[in-house]
Structure formats: structure tokens, C-alpha cells
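Q: what does this look like with NAP bound?
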Amino acid sequence: MISSKTSFIALIGNPVSHSLSPIMQNAALQYLGLDLIYIAIPCKDKDLELVLNSLKKINCKGLNITIPYKEKVFNLCSEISPVASKLKAINTLKLNSEKEWSATNTDVEGFIYPLKTLKLIKKESIVLGSGGAARSVIQGLINLNFSTISVISRNKSSLDELIKNFGSQIEIQGLLNNDNRAQNLIEEADLIVNTTPVGMETTKNKENLLPFGENFWRSLNSKSIIYDLIYNPAPTSLLKFSAKKGCKTIDGLQMLVAQGLKSLSFWTDGLEVPFHIMNDALKNYLKNK
Ligand code: NAP
């Protein structure tokens, strides 16, 4: 029951109305029996500093940060975890003992979660796309001890930037999507991760439902695992196509839930919630939507 003592955790971004975080986080908070609720707060760019500073003064226990503010909040935080510094992106904040924001990023742990049990050490991987999520994915693949990463993207400048950032940690190469070498890499890959938004429910161009078009996928074979970060729809066209080829597939829902569990643990100084509590809440919500 919400009372005059109830505190809150908020998601800050623009837009936030599509977010599934309130559904899964409120299910988890209810499971824990905490007097806390989770709400989404849309925030304009010009108001970000005022909003974050004001939230420090009231009964707000923590925040999630989403697009487009994952980088912009850096100068509003007094403590930043090593992983958030490395990724140059923050997705979770909590108030420290001095009532200042302490920041971290839980996306890497979220990404790794469904791969942990698959024994993928020293394997070859491909990452499609070179935006914000690709950074967490690359760091996750490094942490999991993959032997090589090939990033395939349409954007040369962000591709070059990624290779420069991670090149000292792993054998990593960048290719444009029309590079002829892509077909050999796809044929050999143990894991292919889609971090482009192609296939999302909102994608307007229905002819382009597979990242880089259907021809790009012609050498895919059943030994590859296909991981699509998109969670709505689940499965995406890419995952349906890959399953038909006999590939193991992983959708983005598990990453979403796992990063949410890690954020909740950060806010509550280590409390844990079973994965299925958040996962079932999301699945029920999406089924009845
Ligand atoms: P982002 O920073 O905008 O990066 C998107 C990347 O995809 C960029 O490299 C972009 O290239 C490329 N791209 C965009 N449209 C494309 C198209 N039509 N064809 C080929 N490449 C295209 O976005 P993000 O934050 O990385 O998020 C990417 C996706 O991951 C979204 O669908 C998001 O919902 C999902 N995601 C899921 C989770 C989860 O928990 N499951 C977490 C984070 C993100 P340009 O730079 O050329 O535009």
C-alpha cells in the first residue's frame, strides 16, 4: 500500500513511456515487501540538472537513467564505478551517505546473464551495430573470454571509436556491413549479437526486418547462437529466421531482467530477487498488451 512513508525509485529519460522497467521493478519491490515504488519521469534536456539535484532532496532512493542521458549524467554524479567509466555510460544511480549520486552500469552483467551457463570460452563472436549497447556487449564478451570480436556496422566513425577503445583488451576488428569478409565471419561465428534496433516493434520499414537485409544472412548455419538485444517483439524476425536455420536463439528480455535485478541490488545494498519474479511480470504484461 502506498502511504505517506512510501519512498520511490525513478527512471529518467526522454521518452520513458515505452519502458518496461516500472512493470518488472514494481513486481520485485512488492515481492521484497519494501515500502518503495518505481515510477518513470520524462525529463527534458534543459531540466536534467535541476531534476537530478531536486531528487536528492526528497524521498527518492535511486534512479535508472535511459536514452538520451546515459552520458550526460556523468558530471552530476560524485562517485562513478569503474565499469561505468569504462563504458562511458551510466544506467543506475543511488544516493550515498553524503546525499550525492553514486553511479554504475548494470548492462554488462545483464548481457552476460543468459550466456554464463553456455561454456563459450575462446569462441568467435560478431557484434552488429556500434552504438551504446554495443559497448556493453563488447565488454561482456571480453569478460566471458571470447577469443575474437568482429563488429559489423554501417557507421565508420563509431566503429573506429569502438576498436580504438577496446583494441588493447581483445582481438577485435571493425567491418562495414558491405565488406566481403562478413560472409566468412558469419559462417564461422559461435555467437552473433544484434545491437541494432532493426526488428523493433516500432521499426517503420517492414521490408528491412533483418539487420542489413536478408542477403547478409545467407551463410548463417546452425552452429551459431543468435542473441538479439531487442525484447519487443519477442521473438524478432531475426530470431525466427535463425531458429528456422536450427540456431539456438536468445532474446533481449533476459538481459533487460538481469540488468534490472542488478540495479535493484545496487539500490538496496545487496538484496536479491528471483529472476522469474521480474521475468513473469514482463511476460504477463506483454501477453496482455
Ligand atoms: P544506438 O546507440 O542508437 O545504436 C544503434 C546502432 O545500430 C548504431 O550503430 C546504428 O548505426 C545502428 N543502426 C541503427 N539503425 C540501423 C539500421 N536500420 N541498419 C543498420 N544499423 C542500424 O542504440 P543502443 O542504445 O545501442 O540500442 C540498440 C538496441 O539495443 C535497441 O533496440 C535497444 O532497445 C536495444 N537494447 C536492449 C537492451 C536490453 O536490455 N535488452 C539494453 C540496451 C539496448 P548509426 O550510428 O549509423 O545510426
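The chain has two domains: 7-105+254-288, 109-251. The chain has ten helices and twelve strands.
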